[in-house]
Specification:
CATH class of the largest domain: Alpha Beta
CATH architecture of the largest domain: 3-Layer(aba) Sandwich
Shape: globular
Number of strands: 16
Helix content: 25-40%
Distance between the termini: 37 Å
Length: about 400
């Protein structure tokens, strides 16, 4: 699928919501427009997250264009379904070489993110990763053109881990983990085991195929193992299916997740969500810019935004701000600007920046606790915020991926 957001489409749509879908990019191309590529999975087990990514980036483009664009030029989105790593790589190359995009935003799969990042590095074009968590992308697979607004797995583990430590769910405890069987899950399990090292043990760690829908074999094993904590290293609609079936089985063991997206818990239905989970952002973050975004998203789409929409929305806003500050759409100048300590408001209590070691955004993370069904106001009211990690007086970099020397950007 290819879709293009242009000046003509914005004028034609009453609320700037018209998006031409399935048409060649050249049909609506504007000579003076700045073209931005957007790649994200719209099908498969990550498809529900990709839908929110699209909503977020469309809203950002609309707001930017309604405010005069970038250096007086409109932003034009060229959007594609990344599908899988091989397809993502081919589409990234096509976006840069054929469609002449200034840079690329998106992705959720760490495997596809790696493929896009390799193309971006080879063609010297900025790629801002909005959903890939693997620490390896900030380590051995890092490159100077791949930036990360999404938190790394180690950041997610640290965020929820602080609350598990406070509640005595780590030391001397026995965990049972279910892990998505692809790059993201393998990396997350590795990070989780490192966090648990020397304090507790894993009763078992099961690898779950990404297309698995029936969790009963795993739930029966969990019932027999009687762990102190059931840990989810799952992804996308795996989490939705797991939560539904875990609730149906009525298992009494506490649940926590080391990777999470709000939309997958909304999809589980009222009363099926439980435990403590980490987030890069959520709609209850109490800052002026966060509240403004929630209001704008609800007005446009009639529902609350999730964390994936946050990443894609803010990435385009960061690109627009950076291009205005440098007075250039040149990808080399964009990369240099992002790596030189530029500060950005991404709806959190503190401004953020990309650290030059690995291009990871240094920022606060969050943890949330599932609400009891009787305390939920509606189907969207599923959790209470536990707070930001690190605390307000701590250096934000304490939760960033360790500088272990594997990233060789510098």
């Amino acid at each position: 699928m290819t879709s293009t957001l242009s000046r003509r489409a914005l004028v034609k749509g009453a609320a700037g919501s018209a998006l031409l879908v399935g048409m060649p990019a050249i049909v609506t191309a504007q000579a003076d427009a700045i073209r931005i590529g957007h790649l994200t999975p719209l099908t498969g087990f990550l498809g529900p997250l990709g839908e929110y990514a699209v909503m977020g980036v469309k809203l950002a483009a609309e707001e930017i264009n309604n405010s005069g664009g970038v250096m007086g030029r409109k932003i034009e989105l060229v959007m594609e379904d990344s599908v899988n790593p091989q397809t993502a790589s081919a589409k990234a190359e096509r976006l840069i070489e054929r469609d002449r995009v200034a840079m690329i935003i998106g992705e959720i799969s760490s495997a596809s993110g790696l493929a896009i990042g390799q193309v971006a590095n080879r063609l010297k074009t900025v790629f801002i990763n909005t959903g890939c968590n693997s620490d390896a992308l900030r380590g051995a697979s890092c490159n100077p053109y791949m930036f990360h607004i999404e938190g790394a797995n180690s950041m997610y583990v640290m965020a929820v881990g602080q609350y598990l430590l406070r509640e005595n769910m780590v030391k001397g405890k026995k965990w049972y983990s279910l892990t998505a069987d692809y790059a993201f899950g393998h990396d997350l399990l590795k990070v989780a085991k490192k966090f648990m090292e020397g304090t507790g043990q894993f009763a078992a760690d099961e690898l779950v195929p990404t297309d698995a829908a029936d969790f009963s074999p795993y739930l029966l094993k969990i019932r027999q193992a009687r762990p102190d904590l059931v840990v989810s290293n799952l992804a996308g609609n795996q989490i939705t299916n797991f939560l539904k079936q875990y609730s149906e089985y009525g298992l009494p063991f506490p649940v926590a997740g080391f990777g999470f997206d709000t939309v997958v818990a909304w999809g589980a239905g009222k009363g099926n969500f439980s435990g403590i989970w980490p987030l890069v952002w959520h709609h209850l973050v109490d800052t002026p810019s966060s509240k403004k975004y929630v209001d704008a998203f609800q007005k446009k789409y009639g529902k609350l935004p999730d964390n994936q929409s946050w990443g894609d929305y803010n990435s385009l806003k960061i690109v627009a701000q950076s291009m205005n500050e440098t007075k250039s759409a040149d990808p080399q100048k964009l990369a240099e600007h992002l790596r030189k300590g530029a500060k950005f408001d991404v709806m959190k209590a503190r401004e953020v920046y990309f650290r030059p070691y690995d291009n990871q955004m240094v920022m606060e993370m969050y943890a949330v606790r599932a609400k009891e069904p009787s305390k939920m106001k509606d189907q969207w009211d599923i959790y209470d915020p536990l707070g930001a990690v690190p605390g307000p007086s701590e250096d934000m970099e304490v939760i960033a991926p360790p500088k272990d020397g594997t990233c060789k950007i510098g």
